[in-house]
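Dear support,

We are seeing what looks like truncated structure output for some complexes. This example has two components. We would appreciate it if you could run it in full and send us the complete token output so we can diff it against ours.
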Amino acid sequence: MSAKIKITVNGVMHEAEAGRNILQILLDLGIMLPHFCYHEALGAAGACRLCAAMISPGAGKPARLEMACMTRAEDGMIVDITNPQAVDFREKLIEELMLNHPHDCPVCDEGGECMLQDMTVLCRHQHRRNRFPKRTWRNQDLGPHIHHEMNRCITCYRCVRFYRDYALGDDLGVFGSRGRVYFGRMRDGALVSEFSGNLVDVCPTGVFTDKHFRAVYCRPWDLQTAPSICPHCSVGCNVLPGSRHKTLRRIKPRRNHTVNRFFMCDHGRFGGGFVNADNRLTSARFDGAGMSLDDAITQTAERLKEIVQTHGRGAVAAIGSPGASLEANAALILLMKTLEGRFAFFSTGAERAAHKRAAALIANGQVDTPSLPEVEQADFTLIVGGDITREAPMMDLAVRQTIRAGAPLFIISPQAGKLDAFAKAARHAALPEQAAIVSNIAQALDHALMTGQPDPFAGAAASALATAKRPQILCGATGAGGIALVDAAHSLVAKAVRPERPCRLVYWFPAMNSFGISLARNDESPDTIKQDVENGRIKALTILEHGASLDSEWPDDSKPMKSCFTIAVDAIAGKAATDADAVLPCASHYETFGTVMNYEGRAQRFEGLPLPRPVTWSSAEVLLKLIEALGAGEAINRTEYHDLFEIPATMSSLIGTLAPDSEGLLIRSTAAVREVVG
Amino acid sequence: MAQGVRTMSEIVLFKNIQKNGPELFPAGAAAIPACGYDDYVKNGGYQGARKALKMAPLEVQQVVKDSGLRGRGGAGFPTGMKWSFVPMDFKGQKYLICNCDEMEPGTFKDRALVYGDPHQLIESMIIAAYAMQMTQGFIFIRCEYRKGARILEQAAAEALNHGWLGKNIQSSGFDFHLDVHLSAGRYICGEETALLNSLEGKRANPRSKPPFPQVYGFLGSPTIVNNVETLCNLPHILARGAQWHKSLGLNGNAGTKIMGASGRVKNPGLWELPLGTPMREVLNEHAGGPSRGKSFKTVIPGGLSTPMMTPDQFDTPLDFDSVAKAGSRLGTACLIAFDEDDCMVAATANIMKFYMRESCGFCTPCREGIPWIYETVKAIAEGKGEEGDLAVLDDMARHIFHTFCAFAPGAQGPLLSAITTFRHEFEFLIQKSQCHTAGGAS
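Here is the complete output from our reference environment:
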């Protein structure tokens, strides 16, 4: 597909990739040929007829008015988008689309980022000649997220092409015919797809708008934005949060062609409420008294010093967070090093073991982990260890693309999930039993073409796996399945891999930066820390950012906690912060910068929105201040990432230079790393 | 004027259909009693299929190619050539579909064939299916032809009983299953790719071509969609040979054509005539001339979707090439006649209403442009025309051409010819707010 062809556009010769349509080539060249229904992910439909251009197959051959999106580029083609006939056709087409479109731009929430506005101006349609009544529709209540305004519809079919064809949803459809085509649900009701928010983006005008965004008046151009990473799962979708007047207003997907590309899930899009939440921590507290953050840091440092002096090594401990950046967790580890303390991540030792094994396999390049666009290319998928529709929705959307292409899907999950409907077979089993089922498939693979398997599910999965050309296994490394499941998936892949055929393996994790913290050096099992907190051996415990994302089995109301001095570094007044002796507030995820590593071991940089809050320091900065207050500031400059995490030195230095709009940095593509202790 | 009625050299397609009145035109659908199996066979039926089953499939295709048969659904594409695009080495199921979604206004020829002689169609489908080795067939029939669907189902049951359908038909080793599908009823379903979507249970939107249905059709398999009348020629071609079929037409045209007339004619009806019969003869001899003692003003030659022709063009032979040369299209050769008292603005409004109503709504020029055209023409016809309306019509008539399928260009045909040929009627109405016919002008 990388063959090059030459095509002439408006008299200038360009080189282009063969096999693509003319419109996509023009857009890639930065030439804006007006269009509506074409969308790079959804493909060409030929419905809007706007991308008309004069196209000739070659020099000396007659040019005809053709739709660029429907025309496959061939070598030598000559395209003229400025031809008067084409320009006139496009102008008339906009006139037609505007016949029924309300002139409500001043009060429309799409205004300012409306493709119909842009195209209307671009095609120079100005004067309305239609004197007949406009078509009007009754709108539907589509639930809490999406506002419906059918009168604005220009019938490009993008919404149903996304919702039904691309995301395989079935509760939004197209009704009626002729000039009465209606896009909506059978009857009012909340859209059930996990990806419904993308309707807002794919709709070229204001039919589907974001209910949360429109709740408080704002124009898109008034938003301040910062490139960020979605904090809600380990996929690491690139997002663009926008803020205005001290509040986060909305989150949109940001294009990264190796991660989420065009879309994002509703959890991520509508899950930014924690930024504006009432329970944000805004002031510091020490021993029940409110005070400035600086004072609280100073007093906390003094108390920590006392405890270390009184009780010696190992009297202080810390719990890191998979929902916090590498920087924040690194600062926490450094703090513990300064105090000769101990630290742990995760909820249980079993979870830690599973995470570390999975992360090591990925980091060392022992498994071939696909990116989301690569997940879409698979022709066999086995999902095991959880419900990706809830735990990694965008990976679910990628799997849906394989289903569209006819690839078989097998699912082993604790309970029924939404993907079951598309699976060749789905087996529901408790997590601890799943490793055995995976092993059965591996065994069945030896005699995949034999019939009469003892386990029909394993037999069917194995024979499909045996004949696939690009198989993949997606395994939840959430811990409840344990290291046994991680290993079983790896063994199955090892068996399925053939020289001519790779078998890819995804381990997805529960949180944004689970992968990053899995690489921490010298962390302890949370089980021993918990034990020592309970038996009073640990006298001070620092808890990093656990309020927002994770309510683990960690410090609860058990009495021993009361005898332990607890420090909460958090943005949210969660359970940890409420009970803590020292509360050190920090900025929330979308207000700060940092680096996180997704399920592939892809380090991605995010920036923070400049929200004017009482607390503007990130948790990493708060912890570094604490280290400085302890008089150990010089250690900060001496420490590199690879001192604290099992990452290659080469990567360590590159992390600091990562740009948020880059593809990120894959750990397996940097120098080989040392074996991670499992 | 009258050169004498051209002999209906051979009655081919209508030979089993009982005449109803002076010409074949059913006052009601029930008025044509269907020819049953026994009568059909007695009259030489199933001889063509019997012959075909003894030939090699490609030989049958060759006979059809040699016969010069062109599609009777309106486009006139050579049937043999269309068949030749089917990949004969395709391993899976191939499909033969008979397009009986006859919703073209003014056209009722397929109805006569289905209601009057269902076995002729079934025999035809056996021949076509055998020629392309298609073991599954569908008759896609318009929902208003419910009775026709029942007639076909009954005939198919008879054919099955006599070993002409099902497995191993007539011990030839060839299987052919035939199902009748009653359409939900949209004009666009007559467009072959929309028909395929409809048959698959999807919205009846046309598909993008290529791929063509011959290669990627029903359920993604090679599929041939042929019109009823096209298919009905096959038994006779097979029974009597390609040369015989060629000799039936005039001026080098092959075969007969069912021609019809409706509108301002004395005897509306259907006649099977040699392809190439002049329009004047159909209008004056067969249809009996104008019905109201006025002279004809214009004729739409082939259903509704063809440009209007004026009396100076009435000597045009009704065949695909001659009508095209005259600036229109033969289409279904079912003429719609208007006389000088007809208001062409009101007629155009009526025509546009049909296209507005029947658009599938997929692409913009058709979905948005035609309703605007309709509203504008209707306003003019009602005496509410305004300065600038004709400019809108001029723009839009030229605009509704580059659409996803041929539906909107079908609407463009009559519209463009109306606003060109009868522009004075539009202008008169806009200026005087009344029709020139009522005002005694013209």
